[in-house]
Amino acid sequence: SSQNHSDDVELNTLLDELDMVEEKKLECEQALNSPESLKNIEREVAASLPNGWRQEAKDEYEFWKYEQEKHYHRLVDMITKLQEEIERHGYNLKEYYAAPKCANFGKEPKWKHKADQEIDKRKK
């Protein structure tokens, strides 16, 4: 049964990793879809370049967006690999995505909750 235990531990580790990467993907999507992102870049560029900042800000934003999209696609690739690995453990991903914790993305990810529990344990 120690083999089962190590399989469970590995599966839980993979599921926690999936939680983390899904959370990062959500943050990335929100940043890409936020009109604030462009405004923040415009403010930063305008502060350092009083003249001709608009084009500079636009270029800066395009570069930022390109980098964010690259990051997003890396996260999607990581999610795909994690999903394949998790399925190899015989875990049904439909359960994972149907679970209420998916509604919690953007709120309190499971890994953070677990980390907080660990910290609380150490304090005692």
Keyphrases for this structure?
124 residues; mainly alpha; 5 helices; elongated
What is the H-and-E element order? HHHHH
**Fraction in helix:** over 70%
- Tell me the distance between the termini: 31 Å
What is the oligomeric state here? Answer: single chain
Number of strands: 0
The coarse silhouette is elongated
Number of helices: 5
Describe the structure.
The chain is mostly helical and 124 residues long. The chain contains five helices and no strands. Helix 1 packs antiparallel against helix 3 (53-88) and helix 2 (35-48) crosses helix 3 (53-88). The chain is elongated, with a radius of gyration of 20 Å.
Q: Layout of SSEs?
A:
Elements: H1 2-33, H2 35-48, H3 53-88, H4 93-98, H5 110-123
Question: What is this entry, summarized?
Answer:
With 124 residues, this protein is mainly α. It contains five helices and no strands.
